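Render this sequence as a predicted structure.
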Amino acid sequence: MSEINKVVLAYSGGLDTSVIVKWLQQEYQCEVVTFTADIGQGEELEPARKKAEAMGIQQIFIEDLREEFVRDYVFPMFRANPLYEGEYLLGTSIARPLISKRMVEIARETGADAIAHGATGKGNDQVRFELGAYALSPSVKVIAPWREWDLTSRDRLLKYCADHNIPVEKKRGKKSPYSMDANLLHISYEGDVLENPANEPEEDMWQWTVSPESAPDEATYIDLEYDRGDPVSINGERLSPAELLYELNKTAGAHGIGRVDIVENRYVGMKSRGCYETPGGTILLKAHRAIESITLDRELAHLKDDLMPRYVSLIYNGYWWSPEREAIQALIDQSQKFVCGRVRLKLYKGNVIVVGRESDNSLFDEEIATFEDDAGSYDQRDAEGFIKLNALRMRIAAKKNR
């Protein structure tokens, strides 16, 4: 690490990463390149440029990655119907591979010796950033200040800023007490009262969704069209991936859809309580399962369901660029060849209700499934032999046991 001359820092412009800039300059005596990614967090990013310039940064990268994020990361993940531990839609997890990729690319472009991030030594993000970086650039050097310095509290960080003339933004009004992360897929909340899992979240914490109790008394219907497993239009209007997710977030949030409050198992070993708002993603999960229900073969659908927990654990734990994730992804993508059609959804007070689905590739045969006269398309007498053959092993075992 003593030979580092230039480092690429994942930079938000906030307190932590502003301190990291100065700390890297002092501790490593190196040039710092800042990289700020716009993945739909909804914040003005130009202030980050001004802060970086004020700290003497010569190479500043601020990039709009919203379309790439949704197209190449969110949508492929949702083809798998992802849920970590039955509830979490992986909003933070899926953003890290893209950021790692661009950090490594920028390091190559600028001739940097290392990359740096502001993730703490307690969380999952340090693992995700670094596994991704090593997978894409095996010899890359990684600096994680939170694992090295003694600035382990906000007060110490603020004192460091005062001692080194680092500008700290002083916002008027109440500052959020939560540790938050946002992108086009979700916004997360940790810390403060949430650290006790017995405490109910405060209503004014939520930013993207109204409470279900306050949602409109009239339902909204939307039609979502799919092509090869990905949504392409809302109510007949074709949209880009980022535009589509943005519109779903607005519509679902207005109906109180997408809140979850969970205690999850972090990869580093501890349990962590977090609250998440994923309004558009909640719709995507429900709608995708609906269109698959009529277009996927039974055994293929069940195989996907068997693989899903393994797949989402790989993403949650930071293995997006691993060969096993890519192999599972290839199977998932192949399964989506005929997942095309339309899903009609009813949004009402926190609920996403599927009320219709149709596809030119539908495997649903009404003549066979009907309770009315099936005109000989299905011979019900065949079921007798089917049942006896499937019961054979259990009948033999039952006789032996007696």
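Summary. The first strand starts at residue 6 and ends at 10. DSSP finds twelve helices and 14 strands in the chain.
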